[in-house]
Amino acid sequence: MKKLLAVAVSVALAGALAACGDGAASGGADPEEKSIRIAYQAFPSGDLIVKNQGLLEKALPDYKITWTKFDSGASINTAFVAGSLDIAAIGSSPVARGLSAPLNIPYQVAFVLDVAGDNEALVARNDSGVTDVASLRGKKVATPFASTAHYSLLAALNAAGVKESELTIVDLEPQDILAAWTRGDIDAAYSWLPSLDQLKKTGKVLITSRELAAGGKPTLDLGVVSTAFATAHPEAVDAWRKVEAQALTVIATDPDAAGKAVGAELNLSADDAKAQLSQGVFLKPADLSSPEWLGTEGAPGKLADNLVSAAEFLKSQQKIDAVPTLADVQKAIYVKGLPGVLG
Known about the structure:
This protein is an alpha/beta fold. The protein has helices at residues 2-26, 46-53, 55-59, 73-81, 92-98, 148-159, 174-183, 195-200, 209-214, 227-232, 234-253, 255-266, 270-277, 303-316, 326-331; strands at residues 35-40, 64-69, 87-91, 107-115, 120-125, 140-143, 168-171, 188-192, 203-208, 220-226, 295-296, 299-300.
């Protein structure tokens, strides 16, 4: 498994670096230039508000900030391995992989963007004959590999007593899932918004990530920062955390403004984006430093336990080589300045 993963990482590097573009991959030609290379994903979140409103650019006018879109956490992990990212929005399952062998990526979790709710789900085509998770045996199901959706799919199959070998799981990004769905190439898919809404129009929801969370398999979208960047630029990390917290407040207090900003980034109407945001679970800034989530300096929160649990599940599914210790994962939770920095 380690050898296969290592080969996959090396093969994927060229594509990830090309996706980053010159600015994102190089880190700037001038070693004195202060820059931040950020990976974002096209799902409804406060991160898109930060990007759309230029909040970080306003907070850090002396920094050159480059935003690069990625389609999944797996490609983001590959870019971190290449040393071409500083900050990223990424799911908890890819983070659990990243902190585990063989990747052992030196990054830290510094923010909780959202807790997956009805915004991620397993949907079966209306004409597939699939009525529940158990009836996926012998069917073809698509999901982006190494994503929170992939983790949730495996968790759903495990809960239903379905072995992975009893169906065909194909690795497709959300937009490719839509194309395969339209062609009738797949019977079901586990994906996320905004493409999830398109699947629902001609499909049946079998289970959502909100239901899996209630059953003990929660997934989250996290903000991670490379350890090297956090060490060199702690003031920039503080500024980033503050504007992400500001975006959470906008979602909670001004859903119309949040919908407008997110809709502009996802090419959706403000009303559609607002509806999609309502399907996620967004924490209040004050909750981030609670024992349930990040915690504080000297007292890491239960998020570390969540990531270890995810790693244990991935190990049981033979997706990683080894599970990191709780102590090591706690060290990978960036709690410097909490809770004060978000005040």
